[in-house]
Amino acid sequence: MDSYFLSVLSGLLSHIVCHRTDPRGRLALLLVLFLAPVLQTVIARPQYVLPFFARAQFIYIVTLCSSTVAYRLSPFHQLSRYPGPLLARISSWWMVWNALDGKQHIRFRKLHEVYGEIVRTGPNHVHVCSAAAIRTVLAFQNQWHRFEGYKTLVPPGGTGAILTVTDPEDHRQRRRVWDRALANTALADYRSMMDARITQLREALDKRCGQEVDISEWLTWFTLDFMGDFAFGGSFDFMARAADPEHLHSTIVRAIGASDLFSKIPWTRAFIHLLPNPMEPLLRVSHELVRKKKALGSDAEVKDLFHHFNQRPSDEELSDDALAQDALIAVVAGSDTSSSVLANAIYYLVSDPFALEKLRAELDQAGDLSDWKGLAKCEYLQAVLNETMRLAPAAPNGVVKESPRSGEVVVAGYILPPKTVVYIPFYPLFRDRRYFSAPDEFRPERWLPGTKDYQHDETAFIPFSYGPTGCAGKQLALLETRAALAMLVQRFDIAFSPGYDPARWEEDIEDRFILSKGSLPVVLNTRQL
Ligand code: HEM
Prior knowledge:
This protein has helices at 3-21, 26-44, 49-73, 86-90, 93-99, 104-115, 131-138, 168-181, 184-187, 191-207, 215-231, 238-241, 248-263, 269-272, 280-296, 305-310, 320-351, 353-366, 372-376, 379-391, 426-430, 474-491, 503-508, and strands at residues 118-122, 125-128, 145-146, 212-214, 399-402, 409-411, 414-416, 421-424, 492-496, 510-512, 514-516, 521-526. By secondary structure, it is of the alpha+beta class.
Protein backbone atom coordinates (compact mmCIF):
# COMPACT_ATOMS: atom_id res chain seq x y z
CA MET A 1 0.00 0.00 0.00
CA ASP A 2 1.20 3.52 -0.79
CA SER A 3 3.09 4.98 2.19
CA TYR A 4 1.36 8.41 1.86
CA PHE A 5 -1.99 6.71 2.04
CA LEU A 6 -0.93 4.68 5.09
CA SER A 7 0.21 7.83 6.94
CA VAL A 8 -3.09 9.57 6.17
CA LEU A 9 -5.08 6.52 7.21
CA SER A 10 -3.23 6.14 10.50
CA GLY A 11 -3.72 9.88 11.19
CA LEU A 12 -7.48 9.50 10.69
CA LEU A 13 -7.65 6.34 12.82
CA SER A 14 -5.65 8.05 15.51
CA HIS A 15 -8.16 10.91 15.58
CA ILE A 16 -11.01 8.44 16.12
CA VAL A 17 -9.11 6.66 18.91
CA CYS A 18 -8.19 9.95 20.64
CA HIS A 19 -11.76 11.19 20.34
CA ARG A 20 -13.06 8.02 22.03
CA THR A 21 -10.41 7.49 24.70
CA ASP A 22 -9.12 11.01 25.45
CA PRO A 23 -5.65 9.77 26.47
CA ARG A 24 -3.98 11.43 29.47
CA GLY A 25 -0.93 9.40 30.52
CA ARG A 26 2.54 10.32 29.24
CA LEU A 27 3.10 6.93 27.60
CA ALA A 28 -0.31 6.95 25.92
CA LEU A 29 0.32 10.44 24.55
CA LEU A 30 3.76 9.51 23.25
CA LEU A 31 2.25 6.45 21.56
CA VAL A 32 -0.42 8.61 19.94
CA LEU A 33 2.24 11.00 18.65
CA PHE A 34 4.82 8.51 17.37
CA LEU A 35 3.65 4.90 17.30
CA ALA A 36 2.04 4.82 13.84
CA PRO A 37 4.92 6.46 11.92
CA VAL A 38 7.48 4.33 13.81
CA LEU A 39 5.57 1.12 13.00
CA GLN A 40 5.16 2.20 9.41
CA THR A 41 8.92 2.76 9.12
CA VAL A 42 9.78 -0.55 10.78
CA ILE A 43 7.43 -2.50 8.51
CA ALA A 44 8.43 -0.71 5.28
CA ARG A 45 12.20 -1.11 5.97
CA PRO A 46 13.08 1.79 3.65
CA GLN A 47 16.58 2.34 2.31
CA TYR A 48 16.75 5.85 3.85
CA VAL A 49 15.17 5.42 7.26
CA LEU A 50 15.29 8.97 8.58
CA PRO A 51 13.74 10.78 5.56
CA PHE A 52 11.07 8.08 5.34
CA PHE A 53 10.22 8.39 9.03
CA ALA A 54 10.22 12.22 8.91
CA ARG A 55 7.81 12.21 5.97
CA ALA A 56 5.52 9.61 7.56
CA GLN A 57 5.51 11.54 10.84
CA PHE A 58 4.78 14.84 9.09
CA ILE A 59 1.87 13.47 7.04
CA TYR A 60 0.51 11.62 10.05
CA ILE A 61 0.54 14.73 12.30
CA VAL A 62 -0.88 17.00 9.60
CA THR A 63 -3.72 14.51 8.99
CA LEU A 64 -4.42 14.07 12.70
CA CYS A 65 -4.55 17.85 13.26
CA SER A 66 -6.58 18.61 10.10
CA SER A 67 -9.09 15.90 10.86
CA THR A 68 -9.45 17.15 14.46
CA VAL A 69 -9.91 20.77 13.34
CA ALA A 70 -12.37 19.79 10.60
CA TYR A 71 -14.48 17.85 13.11
CA ARG A 72 -14.42 20.64 15.68
CA LEU A 73 -15.62 23.16 13.09
CA SER A 74 -18.12 20.84 11.48
CA PRO A 75 -21.89 20.79 12.13
CA PHE A 76 -21.39 17.23 13.46
CA HIS A 77 -19.72 18.52 16.62
CA GLN A 78 -22.26 18.53 19.44
CA LEU A 79 -21.42 22.11 20.43
CA SER A 80 -21.58 23.42 16.85
CA ARG A 81 -24.85 25.26 17.49
CA TYR A 82 -23.19 27.55 20.05
CA PRO A 83 -21.36 30.65 18.84
CA GLY A 84 -17.82 31.56 19.77
CA PRO A 85 -14.51 32.77 18.36
CA LEU A 86 -13.21 30.61 15.51
CA LEU A 87 -9.85 29.91 17.14
CA ALA A 88 -11.53 28.90 20.40
CA ARG A 89 -13.61 26.32 18.57
CA ILE A 90 -10.46 24.91 16.96
CA SER A 91 -8.19 24.48 19.97
CA SER A 92 -7.96 24.87 23.74
CA TRP A 93 -4.62 26.58 23.21
CA TRP A 94 -6.75 29.65 22.47
CA MET A 95 -7.71 29.60 26.17
CA VAL A 96 -4.04 29.53 27.17
CA TRP A 97 -3.22 32.44 24.90
CA ASN A 98 -6.26 34.27 26.21
CA ALA A 99 -5.15 33.81 29.81
CA LEU A 100 -1.55 34.92 29.35
CA ASP A 101 -2.04 38.59 30.27
CA GLY A 102 -4.36 37.88 33.21
CA LYS A 103 -7.22 39.79 31.58
CA GLN A 104 -9.33 36.84 30.45
CA HIS A 105 -12.25 37.83 32.69
CA ILE A 106 -12.58 41.15 30.86
CA ARG A 107 -12.33 39.46 27.49
CA PHE A 108 -14.98 36.89 28.43
CA ARG A 109 -17.35 39.67 29.40
CA LYS A 110 -16.89 41.21 25.96
CA LEU A 111 -17.47 37.83 24.33
CA HIS A 112 -20.78 37.47 26.18
CA GLU A 113 -21.76 40.94 24.99
CA VAL A 114 -21.04 39.89 21.40
CA TYR A 115 -22.33 36.30 21.37
CA GLY A 116 -24.93 36.17 24.14
CA GLU A 117 -25.19 34.22 27.37
CA ILE A 118 -23.63 31.03 26.06
CA VAL A 119 -20.29 31.17 24.27
CA ARG A 120 -18.24 28.26 22.96
CA THR A 121 -14.83 29.07 24.38
CA GLY A 122 -13.04 25.86 23.51
CA PRO A 123 -13.57 22.78 21.37
CA ASN A 124 -15.42 21.21 24.28
CA HIS A 125 -15.94 24.25 26.49
CA VAL A 126 -18.73 26.74 27.02
CA HIS A 127 -19.05 29.79 29.23
CA VAL A 128 -22.61 30.21 30.48
CA CYS A 129 -23.33 33.67 31.88
CA SER A 130 -26.74 33.04 33.38
CA ALA A 131 -28.12 32.88 36.91
CA ALA A 132 -30.35 30.08 35.69
CA ALA A 133 -27.25 27.89 35.15
CA ILE A 134 -25.98 28.11 38.73
CA ARG A 135 -28.15 25.49 40.40
CA THR A 136 -27.92 22.95 37.59
CA VAL A 137 -24.15 23.15 37.32
CA LEU A 138 -23.12 23.63 40.94
CA ALA A 139 -25.73 22.03 43.16
CA PHE A 140 -25.63 18.43 42.01
CA GLN A 141 -22.19 17.10 42.68
CA ASN A 142 -22.97 13.48 41.96
CA GLN A 143 -23.48 14.12 38.29
CA TRP A 144 -21.28 17.16 37.73
CA HIS A 145 -17.55 16.74 38.28
CA ARG A 146 -14.98 19.37 38.96
CA PHE A 147 -13.06 20.04 35.72
CA GLU A 148 -10.01 17.78 35.59
CA GLY A 149 -7.85 20.79 34.67
CA TYR A 150 -7.68 21.52 38.43
CA LYS A 151 -5.41 18.50 38.64
CA THR A 152 -2.52 20.45 37.14
CA LEU A 153 -2.25 21.93 40.65
CA VAL A 154 -1.49 18.47 42.06
CA PRO A 155 2.24 17.74 42.39
CA PRO A 156 3.43 14.49 40.76
CA GLY A 157 2.73 11.51 43.00
CA GLY A 158 0.79 13.73 45.42
CA THR A 159 -2.76 13.41 46.64
CA GLY A 160 -3.71 16.98 45.83
CA ALA A 161 -5.56 19.49 47.97
CA ILE A 162 -9.32 19.49 48.41
CA LEU A 163 -9.69 22.15 45.73
CA THR A 164 -8.23 19.79 43.13
CA VAL A 165 -10.34 16.72 43.95
CA THR A 166 -12.51 15.95 40.95
CA ASP A 167 -14.19 12.72 42.06
CA PRO A 168 -17.43 13.63 43.90
CA GLU A 169 -17.17 10.84 46.49
CA ASP A 170 -13.51 11.60 47.29
CA HIS A 171 -14.42 15.25 47.57
CA ARG A 172 -17.26 14.55 49.97
CA GLN A 173 -14.87 12.61 52.21
CA ARG A 174 -12.26 15.35 52.16
CA ARG A 175 -14.81 18.08 52.67
CA ARG A 176 -16.24 16.64 55.92
CA VAL A 177 -13.25 17.57 57.97
CA TRP A 178 -13.19 21.08 56.48
CA ASP A 179 -16.85 21.60 57.25
CA ARG A 180 -16.22 20.68 60.87
CA ALA A 181 -13.13 22.89 61.08
CA LEU A 182 -15.02 25.87 59.69
CA ALA A 183 -18.47 25.28 61.17
CA ASN A 184 -20.00 28.23 63.01
CA THR A 185 -19.28 26.50 66.34
CA ALA A 186 -15.56 26.24 65.49
CA LEU A 187 -15.14 29.85 64.37
CA ALA A 188 -14.76 31.11 67.94
CA ASP A 189 -11.54 29.06 68.16
CA TYR A 190 -9.90 31.36 65.62
CA ARG A 191 -11.03 34.54 67.23
CA SER A 192 -7.98 35.30 69.33
CA MET A 193 -5.59 34.76 66.40
CA MET A 194 -7.67 37.00 64.16
CA ASP A 195 -7.99 39.75 66.76
CA ALA A 196 -4.23 39.62 67.42
CA ARG A 197 -3.45 40.01 63.72
CA ILE A 198 -5.91 42.90 63.32
CA THR A 199 -4.28 44.66 66.29
CA GLN A 200 -0.86 44.04 64.75
CA LEU A 201 -2.02 45.53 61.45
CA ARG A 202 -3.46 48.56 63.23
CA GLU A 203 -0.26 49.15 65.22
CA ALA A 204 1.95 48.75 62.15
CA LEU A 205 -0.15 51.27 60.22
CA ASP A 206 -0.27 53.62 63.25
CA LYS A 207 3.51 53.80 63.10
CA ARG A 208 3.41 54.71 59.42
CA CYS A 209 0.81 57.46 59.66
CA GLY A 210 1.56 60.40 57.40
CA GLN A 211 3.80 58.27 55.18
CA GLU A 212 2.97 56.53 51.95
CA VAL A 213 2.08 52.86 52.49
CA ASP A 214 1.14 50.25 49.95
CA ILE A 215 -2.10 49.15 51.59
CA SER A 216 -2.53 46.31 49.10
CA GLU A 217 0.79 44.80 50.21
CA TRP A 218 -0.03 45.24 53.91
CA LEU A 219 -3.39 43.54 53.45
CA THR A 220 -1.70 40.64 51.65
CA TRP A 221 0.71 40.28 54.58
CA PHE A 222 -2.16 40.53 57.05
CA THR A 223 -4.19 37.75 55.43
CA LEU A 224 -1.09 35.57 54.91
CA ASP A 225 -0.15 35.95 58.58
CA PHE A 226 -3.66 35.10 59.66
CA MET A 227 -3.88 32.07 57.38
CA GLY A 228 -0.39 31.09 58.59
CA ASP A 229 -1.75 31.06 62.16
CA PHE A 230 -4.91 29.26 61.09
CA ALA A 231 -3.32 26.53 59.00
CA PHE A 232 0.45 26.66 59.25
CA GLY A 233 1.10 26.86 62.98
CA GLY A 234 1.86 30.59 62.89
CA SER A 235 5.02 30.13 60.87
CA PHE A 236 4.75 33.36 58.83
CA ASP A 237 5.53 36.80 60.12
CA PHE A 238 5.18 39.14 57.19
CA MET A 239 3.75 42.09 59.09
CA ALA A 240 6.42 41.97 61.82
CA ARG A 241 9.14 41.98 59.17
CA ALA A 242 7.23 44.32 56.86
CA ALA A 243 8.68 42.23 54.06
CA ASP A 244 8.60 38.91 52.24
CA PRO A 245 12.35 38.20 52.08
CA GLU A 246 11.86 34.55 51.04
CA HIS A 247 9.54 35.66 48.21
CA LEU A 248 6.98 33.22 49.49
CA HIS A 249 3.99 35.13 48.19
CA SER A 250 5.41 35.74 44.73
CA THR A 251 6.37 32.04 44.55
CA ILE A 252 2.77 31.04 45.27
CA VAL A 253 1.42 33.52 42.71
CA ARG A 254 3.85 32.37 40.01
CA ALA A 255 3.41 28.65 40.66
CA ILE A 256 -0.37 28.77 40.72
CA GLY A 257 -0.40 31.13 37.72
CA ALA A 258 1.66 28.69 35.63
CA SER A 259 -0.53 25.74 36.67
CA ASP A 260 -3.62 27.75 35.81
CA LEU A 261 -2.42 28.28 32.24
CA PHE A 262 -1.90 24.58 31.66
CA SER A 263 -5.09 23.64 33.47
CA LYS A 264 -6.90 24.69 30.28
CA ILE A 265 -5.33 21.67 28.54
CA PRO A 266 -5.44 18.77 30.99
CA TRP A 267 -3.21 16.43 28.95
CA THR A 268 -0.25 18.83 29.36
CA ARG A 269 -0.14 17.69 32.98
CA ALA A 270 1.72 14.55 31.88
CA PHE A 271 4.59 16.74 30.70
CA ILE A 272 4.63 19.78 32.98
CA HIS A 273 5.07 17.42 35.90
CA LEU A 274 8.52 16.69 34.51
CA LEU A 275 9.49 20.26 35.45
CA PRO A 276 10.57 21.24 38.98
CA ASN A 277 7.63 22.18 41.21
CA PRO A 278 8.12 25.74 42.58
CA MET A 279 5.79 24.90 45.49
CA GLU A 280 8.06 22.06 46.63
CA PRO A 281 9.80 24.01 49.46
CA LEU A 282 6.40 25.09 50.82
CA LEU A 283 5.07 21.55 50.61
CA ARG A 284 8.09 20.33 52.58
CA VAL A 285 7.29 22.85 55.33
CA SER A 286 3.69 21.66 55.26
CA HIS A 287 4.71 18.00 55.60
CA GLU A 288 7.00 18.87 58.51
CA LEU A 289 4.12 20.70 60.15
CA VAL A 290 1.83 17.69 59.76
CA ARG A 291 4.42 15.52 61.53
CA LYS A 292 4.70 17.99 64.43
CA LYS A 293 0.97 18.51 64.76
CA LYS A 294 0.24 14.79 64.66
CA ALA A 295 2.67 14.27 67.51
CA LEU A 296 0.80 16.90 69.53
CA GLY A 297 -2.55 15.27 68.79
CA SER A 298 -5.85 16.92 69.64
CA ASP A 299 -4.51 18.12 73.03
CA ALA A 300 -2.61 20.94 71.35
CA GLU A 301 -3.14 24.27 73.10
CA VAL A 302 -3.80 26.23 69.93
CA LYS A 303 -7.07 25.37 68.26
CA ASP A 304 -6.19 25.80 64.63
CA LEU A 305 -7.10 23.90 61.48
CA PHE A 306 -4.98 20.93 62.59
CA HIS A 307 -6.72 20.74 65.92
CA HIS A 308 -9.89 20.01 63.99
CA PHE A 309 -8.13 17.75 61.49
CA ASN A 310 -6.80 15.70 64.42
CA GLN A 311 -10.22 15.39 65.97
CA ARG A 312 -11.74 13.61 63.00
CA PRO A 313 -13.37 10.24 63.71
CA SER A 314 -11.13 7.23 63.19
CA ASP A 315 -13.11 6.06 60.15
CA GLU A 316 -12.24 9.29 58.30
CA GLU A 317 -8.93 8.32 56.80
CA LEU A 318 -6.82 11.20 55.56
CA SER A 319 -3.24 10.62 54.44
CA ASP A 320 -0.44 12.86 55.72
CA ASP A 321 0.02 14.12 52.18
CA ALA A 322 -3.66 15.12 51.97
CA LEU A 323 -3.35 17.00 55.28
CA ALA A 324 -0.19 18.79 54.15
CA GLN A 325 -1.75 19.75 50.82
CA ASP A 326 -4.91 21.01 52.52
CA ALA A 327 -2.94 23.16 54.96
CA LEU A 328 -1.18 24.73 52.00
CA ILE A 329 -4.38 25.27 50.05
CA ALA A 330 -5.87 27.08 53.05
CA VAL A 331 -3.06 29.61 52.72
CA VAL A 332 -3.53 29.91 48.97
CA ALA A 333 -7.36 29.93 48.98
CA GLY A 334 -7.75 31.98 52.12
CA SER A 335 -5.20 34.78 51.79
CA ASP A 336 -5.29 36.28 48.31
CA THR A 337 -9.07 36.09 48.16
CA SER A 338 -9.59 38.00 51.41
CA SER A 339 -6.78 40.48 50.75
CA SER A 340 -8.21 41.20 47.28
CA VAL A 341 -11.62 41.92 48.76
CA LEU A 342 -10.12 44.20 51.41
CA ALA A 343 -7.82 46.09 49.03
CA ASN A 344 -10.61 46.53 46.50
CA ALA A 345 -12.97 47.76 49.22
CA ILE A 346 -10.41 50.40 50.26
CA TYR A 347 -9.97 51.40 46.63
CA TYR A 348 -13.71 51.82 46.04
CA LEU A 349 -14.28 53.62 49.35
CA VAL A 350 -11.43 56.09 48.88
CA SER A 351 -12.74 56.74 45.36
CA ASP A 352 -16.22 57.39 46.79
CA PRO A 353 -16.01 59.73 49.83
CA PHE A 354 -19.80 59.65 50.29
CA ALA A 355 -19.80 55.85 50.77
CA LEU A 356 -16.74 56.09 53.02
CA GLU A 357 -18.44 58.63 55.29
CA LYS A 358 -21.65 56.63 55.38
CA LEU A 359 -19.76 53.51 56.43
CA ARG A 360 -17.82 55.43 59.05
CA ALA A 361 -21.04 56.82 60.52
CA GLU A 362 -22.47 53.32 60.79
CA LEU A 363 -19.31 51.97 62.43
CA ASP A 364 -19.04 54.90 64.86
CA GLN A 365 -22.57 54.21 65.92
CA ALA A 366 -21.91 50.48 66.27
CA GLY A 367 -19.15 51.28 68.79
CA ASP A 368 -17.25 48.13 69.83
CA LEU A 369 -15.71 46.65 66.69
CA SER A 370 -14.40 43.57 68.46
CA ASP A 371 -17.99 42.39 68.78
CA TRP A 372 -18.44 39.98 65.84
CA LYS A 373 -22.18 39.79 66.28
CA GLY A 374 -22.46 43.59 66.31
CA LEU A 375 -20.39 43.85 63.10
CA ALA A 376 -22.58 41.28 61.39
CA LYS A 377 -25.53 43.62 61.98
CA CYS A 378 -23.81 46.56 60.22
CA GLU A 379 -25.82 46.52 57.02
CA TYR A 380 -23.81 49.15 55.17
CA LEU A 381 -20.54 47.36 55.98
CA GLN A 382 -21.88 44.16 54.42
CA ALA A 383 -23.31 46.17 51.51
CA VAL A 384 -19.83 47.63 50.83
CA LEU A 385 -18.25 44.17 50.93
CA ASN A 386 -20.92 42.69 48.66
CA GLU A 387 -20.62 45.53 46.18
CA THR A 388 -16.84 45.11 46.20
CA MET A 389 -17.12 41.37 45.53
CA ARG A 390 -19.66 42.06 42.80
CA LEU A 391 -17.46 44.51 40.93
CA ALA A 392 -14.18 42.78 41.70
CA PRO A 393 -14.79 39.12 42.55
CA ALA A 394 -11.84 37.35 44.12
CA ALA A 395 -12.30 34.57 41.54
CA PRO A 396 -13.29 36.53 38.40
CA ASN A 397 -13.22 33.48 36.18
CA GLY A 398 -15.58 31.69 38.48
CA VAL A 399 -15.82 27.93 38.61
CA VAL A 400 -15.49 25.16 36.05
CA LYS A 401 -17.34 21.87 36.04
CA GLU A 402 -17.72 18.95 33.66
CA SER A 403 -21.21 17.89 32.66
CA PRO A 404 -22.38 14.34 33.50
CA ARG A 405 -20.43 11.58 31.79
CA SER A 406 -23.45 10.13 30.04
CA GLY A 407 -26.59 11.67 28.62
CA GLU A 408 -27.36 15.19 27.54
CA VAL A 409 -28.10 17.86 30.09
CA VAL A 410 -30.03 21.12 29.89
CA VAL A 411 -28.30 24.15 31.39
CA ALA A 412 -30.24 27.42 31.41
CA GLY A 413 -32.23 26.09 28.45
CA TYR A 414 -29.18 25.01 26.44
CA ILE A 415 -28.67 21.34 25.61
CA LEU A 416 -25.14 20.19 26.34
CA PRO A 417 -23.54 16.84 25.47
CA PRO A 418 -21.81 14.66 28.11
CA LYS A 419 -18.40 15.79 29.40
CA THR A 420 -18.78 19.40 28.31
CA VAL A 421 -16.53 21.75 30.27
CA VAL A 422 -18.84 24.44 31.64
CA TYR A 423 -17.61 27.73 33.08
CA ILE A 424 -19.79 29.89 35.28
CA PRO A 425 -17.81 33.13 34.93
CA PHE A 426 -18.27 35.47 37.91
CA TYR A 427 -16.98 38.73 36.47
CA PRO A 428 -19.37 38.83 33.47
CA LEU A 429 -22.23 37.44 35.56
CA PHE A 430 -21.93 39.93 38.42
CA ARG A 431 -21.72 42.82 35.93
CA ASP A 432 -24.61 41.66 33.81
CA ARG A 433 -27.19 44.45 33.53
CA ARG A 434 -30.03 41.92 33.40
CA TYR A 435 -29.28 41.26 37.07
CA PHE A 436 -27.73 44.52 38.31
CA SER A 437 -28.56 47.98 37.00
CA ALA A 438 -25.65 50.44 36.59
CA PRO A 439 -23.49 47.30 36.61
CA ASP A 440 -20.12 49.05 36.46
CA GLU A 441 -20.83 51.51 39.26
CA PHE A 442 -20.00 51.15 42.93
CA ARG A 443 -23.37 51.50 44.64
CA PRO A 444 -23.45 49.70 48.00
CA GLU A 445 -27.00 51.00 48.54
CA ARG A 446 -28.33 48.39 46.15
CA TRP A 447 -27.64 45.75 48.85
CA LEU A 448 -29.57 47.50 51.61
CA PRO A 449 -32.81 45.79 52.60
CA GLY A 450 -35.85 47.38 51.02
CA THR A 451 -33.94 49.30 48.31
CA LYS A 452 -36.12 49.60 45.25
CA ASP A 453 -34.10 51.94 43.04
CA TYR A 454 -32.06 49.19 41.42
CA GLN A 455 -32.47 46.13 39.30
CA HIS A 456 -31.01 43.71 41.77
CA ASP A 457 -31.09 39.92 41.47
CA GLU A 458 -29.09 38.25 44.18
CA THR A 459 -29.49 34.81 42.61
CA ALA A 460 -26.76 35.88 40.18
CA PHE A 461 -24.32 36.74 42.98
CA ILE A 462 -22.18 33.81 44.18
CA PRO A 463 -18.71 35.20 45.02
CA PHE A 464 -18.01 32.16 47.23
CA SER A 465 -19.46 29.79 44.62
CA TYR A 466 -22.36 27.54 45.46
CA GLY A 467 -23.20 23.96 46.37
CA PRO A 468 -21.08 21.16 47.80
CA THR A 469 -17.78 22.47 46.43
CA GLY A 470 -18.48 26.10 47.37
CA CYS A 471 -16.00 27.97 49.55
CA ALA A 472 -15.33 26.09 52.78
CA GLY A 473 -14.05 29.26 54.45
CA LYS A 474 -16.93 31.59 53.60
CA GLN A 475 -18.00 32.35 57.18
CA LEU A 476 -14.43 32.86 58.35
CA ALA A 477 -13.73 35.10 55.36
CA LEU A 478 -16.80 37.20 56.14
CA LEU A 479 -15.73 37.64 59.76
CA GLU A 480 -12.18 38.51 58.73
CA THR A 481 -13.05 41.01 56.01
CA ARG A 482 -15.73 42.72 58.12
CA ALA A 483 -13.43 43.07 61.14
CA ALA A 484 -10.39 44.26 59.18
CA LEU A 485 -12.29 46.73 56.99
CA ALA A 486 -14.18 48.11 59.99
CA MET A 487 -10.90 48.68 61.86
CA LEU A 488 -9.27 50.46 58.89
CA VAL A 489 -12.23 52.71 58.17
CA GLN A 490 -12.95 53.62 61.77
CA ARG A 491 -9.34 54.18 62.76
CA PHE A 492 -7.85 56.04 59.79
CA ASP A 493 -8.43 58.86 57.37
CA ILE A 494 -7.34 57.33 54.08
CA ALA A 495 -6.35 59.13 50.87
CA PHE A 496 -4.59 57.99 47.72
CA SER A 497 -0.97 58.97 47.77
CA PRO A 498 -0.31 62.28 45.94
CA GLY A 499 0.68 61.55 42.36
CA TYR A 500 -0.98 58.10 42.31
CA ASP A 501 -3.36 57.62 39.40
CA PRO A 502 -6.27 55.50 40.79
CA ALA A 503 -7.12 54.33 37.24
CA ARG A 504 -4.05 52.13 37.51
CA TRP A 505 -5.57 49.92 40.22
CA GLU A 506 -8.06 48.11 37.98
CA GLU A 507 -5.58 48.05 35.10
CA ASP A 508 -2.97 46.32 37.27
CA ILE A 509 -5.26 43.52 38.44
CA GLU A 510 -4.44 40.23 36.74
CA ASP A 511 -6.19 36.94 37.25
CA ARG A 512 -4.42 33.61 36.97
CA PHE A 513 -6.53 31.51 39.30
CA ILE A 514 -5.42 33.82 42.08
CA LEU A 515 -5.53 37.55 41.63
CA SER A 516 -2.30 39.46 41.44
CA LYS A 517 -2.70 43.10 42.33
CA GLY A 518 -0.54 46.12 41.75
CA SER A 519 0.36 48.46 44.57
CA LEU A 520 -2.23 50.75 46.13
CA PRO A 521 -0.27 53.62 47.67
CA VAL A 522 -2.24 55.53 50.28
CA VAL A 523 -1.52 57.96 53.10
CA LEU A 524 -3.19 57.14 56.41
CA ASN A 525 -3.77 59.44 59.35
CA THR A 526 -5.32 58.54 62.67
CA ARG A 527 -8.79 60.04 62.82
CA GLN A 528 -9.40 62.83 65.31
CA LEU A 529 -12.57 61.79 67.12
C1 HEM B 1 -13.44 36.72 50.57
C2 HEM B 1 -12.74 35.64 50.63
C3 HEM B 1 -12.98 34.36 49.86
C4 HEM B 1 -13.60 34.16 48.65
C5 HEM B 1 -14.28 35.19 47.78
C6 HEM B 1 -13.52 32.73 48.37
C7 HEM B 1 -14.03 32.13 47.23
C8 HEM B 1 -13.88 30.79 46.94
C9 HEM B 1 -14.32 30.17 45.71
C10 HEM B 1 -14.98 30.89 44.54
C11 HEM B 1 -14.01 28.85 45.79
C12 HEM B 1 -14.22 27.78 44.70
C13 HEM B 1 -15.42 26.97 44.98
C14 HEM B 1 -15.79 25.97 43.92
O1 HEM B 1 -14.91 25.40 43.26
O2 HEM B 1 -17.00 25.74 43.73
C15 HEM B 1 -13.39 28.63 47.07
C16 HEM B 1 -12.97 27.39 47.53
C17 HEM B 1 -12.38 27.20 48.75
N1 HEM B 1 -12.10 28.16 49.70
FE1 HEM B 1 -12.58 30.11 49.61
N2 HEM B 1 -12.85 32.12 49.39
C18 HEM B 1 -12.51 33.07 50.33
C19 HEM B 1 -11.83 32.86 51.51
C20 HEM B 1 -11.48 31.64 52.02
C21 HEM B 1 -10.86 31.42 53.31
C22 HEM B 1 -10.53 32.51 54.34
C23 HEM B 1 -10.62 30.08 53.40
C24 HEM B 1 -9.96 29.29 54.50
C25 HEM B 1 -10.11 29.30 55.67
C26 HEM B 1 -11.09 29.47 52.19
C27 HEM B 1 -11.04 28.12 51.94
C28 HEM B 1 -11.50 27.54 50.78
C29 HEM B 1 -11.40 26.11 50.51
C30 HEM B 1 -10.80 25.05 51.43
C31 HEM B 1 -11.95 25.90 49.25
C32 HEM B 1 -12.11 24.56 48.53
C33 HEM B 1 -13.50 24.04 48.81
C34 HEM B 1 -13.78 22.67 48.22
O3 HEM B 1 -13.13 22.26 47.28
O4 HEM B 1 -14.68 22.00 48.74
N3 HEM B 1 -11.62 30.45 51.38
N4 HEM B 1 -13.33 29.82 47.75
